[in-house]
Amino acid sequence: MKKIPFLILVLLAGAAAWWFFLREKRHEDGGLLLHGNVDIREVNLGFRVSGKIAAILHEEGDEVKAGEVLAQLDTEPFQRELAEARAQAESLRARVRLLQSGYRPEEIAQASALAHERQVTFENARKTFQRAEDLLTTQSVSRQDHDDAEARYREAEARLKSAREQLALLQAGYREEELAQARADLVRAEASMAGIELRLRDATLSAPTNGIVLTRAQEPGAIVQAGATVLTVSLSQPVWVRAYVSEPNLGRIRPGMPMEVFTDSRADKPYRGQIGYISPRAEFTPRNVETPELRTSLVYRLRIIVENSDEGLRQGMPVTIKSATSAN
């Protein structure tokens, strides 16, 4: 009983080998005859940000061009964020300009006048105290009057020192550390504004290349998360044909070999193409099957790049591939 599954396996492998032999038979000019299917790439398009869909501008089956707008999110939340960020950045720019220019001339002039006024007051208090000092030696002034004169002199001296320091501070301007901090705050605000501008641009969904809309997965008004598929587009280029070649004929093909692709609808007008890829791995037959009887059933996937494709080639369409040359 255990031999029956093995016999069935052998018969199936032999049938597969015979089938590929018939499919890859030589035509009159000695080239290969292969069969395959059109393989067109598709891309699922979605927004990089979340939000409410405001409009979807294309239906299924519409042709689109590279860069054409396909859908749009509601941009009001992004516009408000951007307005706030721009105002914040402008406020920080004004602060940087203020710190760079220093204090106003009017403020410096006012501080200078105050210092001059206190200089005069100090000179007057110093002279009064000096007279009190001289009179005290002759007992012509009381100790209390002397002490009051000295207090006024010391107070005037301190007030003059304070005014001079304030004037020097205004003339020196703001500290470099304050300016550096203001500049850093401005850079951070501008980076935040640039991020909001990028999110605003991402609220518009555009076609990456020419193609046809296959699926419209969302409708206006829907709230979508970032990355959710809104439209699926079939790319116009490149158009590939996926085919398989058996191991005995593997040596007759090579990358770059010119091929002709025929469809049932235009059997007398083949498409031009060339082999762009040959798989290094066999398919359909398990790797551990290495017997000479089954080895001929191994097949290898190859890709033919169609050079003059048009709307006549559709996803999954069966085609026939012919070659009048073989690999050297």
Structure description:
By secondary structure, this protein is α+β, with helices and mostly antiparallel strands. It folds into two domains: 13-73 and 206-328, OB fold (Dihydrolipoamide Acetyltransferase, E2P) (Beta Barrel); 81-197, Orthogonal Bundle (Helix Hairpins), CATH 1.10.287. Helices cover 43% and strands 27% of the residues. The protein has six helices and twelve strands. The protein has helices spanning 3-23, 76-101, 105-137, 143-172, 176-202, 292-295, and strands spanning 33-45, 51-56, 63-64, 69-73, 204-206, 211-216, 223-224, 231-246, 258-263, 266-283, 299-306, 318-322. Strands 1-8-11-10-9-12 form a six-stranded antiparallel β-barrel. Strand 9 and strand 10 (266-283) form a beta hairpin. 19% of the residues are buried. Residues 18-29 and 285-291 have low confidence and may be disordered.
